[in-house]
Design brief:
Layout (H helix, E strand, L loop, with lengths): L1 E5 L14 E2 L3 E3 L3 E5 L4 E3 L2 E5 L9 E6 L2 E5 L14 E3 L10 E3 L11 E5 L5 E3 L6 E5 L6 E6 L3 E9 L7 E4 L4 E10 L2 E10 L9 E7 L5 E7 L3
Parallel strand pairs: 1-17, 2-6, 4-13
Antiparallel strand pairs: 3-6, 5-10, 7-8, 7-11, 9-10, 11-12, 14-15, 15-18, 16-19, 17-18, 19-20
């Protein structure tokens, strides 16, 4: 029996309905984000632009790698084949959110990526000094495991990941009741944990408990613990 609770609170999408006017062009992005090869990765991004009395009604955003446009909020823009249908400009520029989602991360997706904002009635700015790199992980680390033994055995298995829309899947070597939940660690990293609870049977009890994890894209990781009081 399995229960799944995915509590992915995407804080960077809960934005106020105001224009991000400020004194200067500024941006807030991480410099490096780790991501397992094959899963998705979210690049969280906030920006501001100088205050103006001009009434603005159009914002154009472009995430770039060198001269290649990786993602844009312009729906009909034709991206390079390498990134076509693999990226989403998920932020709303008019409220200061410039976040980008990259699917099916490849070993060539290390970047660095940077943002360009164009406001036709006003100005444009390219944040070339604020680049984001992806640390593509070819082999994920083994999941963290712990356990408690009382009347029942309760075991915990958890991993960190960068793909809130498709968290890793867990499996156990022992039958029992399981529950899975996720929580946001920071603006670009999530923790997903599986909890297993079962009553040990003295006739066929195996003290070695295995937890296996499958990431989106197919990468796997495994850990084991020996259940001793």
């Amino acid at each position: 029996m399995e229960k799944k609770f995915f509590l992915c609170v995407l804080l960077f999408w809960a934005v106020p309905d105001v224009q991000p006017a400020s004194d200067v062009w500024a941006i807030d992005v991480p410099s490096t984000i780790p991501a397992v090869q094959g899963e998705c990765v979210l690049i969280p991004c906030w920006y501001t632009y100088p205050t103006t009395k001009i009434v603005l009604n159009r914002w154009m955003g472009f995430w770039k790698r060198g001269n290649t446009i990786v993602s844009t909020n312009l729906k009909k823009w034709k991206l390079a084949k390498e990134f076509n249908k693999r990226t989403e400009f998920v932020g709303a520029l008019q409220v200061g959110n410039c976040s980008m989602l990259l699917h099916s991360v490849r070993t060539t997706d290390i970047g660095p990526f940077y943002l360009q904002v164009r406001i036709p009635q006003f100005k444009s700015f390219t944040f070339t000094e604020n680049k984001v790199s992806i640390d593509v992980i070819r082999q994920p680390e083994p999941p963290a495991m712990s356990f408690q033994i009382l009347d029942t055995v309760r075991a915990y298995c958890s991993v960190l990941h960068s793909c809130p829309s498709a968290p890793p899947r867990f499996s156990w070597s022992q039958a029992g009741v399981t529950a899975t939940w996720s929580k946001q660690i920071n603006l670009w990293m999530w923790k997903t944990e599986s909890v297993l609870e079962f009553v040990p049977d003295s006739l066929d009890f195996n003290p070695v408990l295995n937890c296996s994890v499958v990431y989106r894209g197919g990468k796997t990781a495994k850990s084991s613990v020996v259940l001793i009081k």
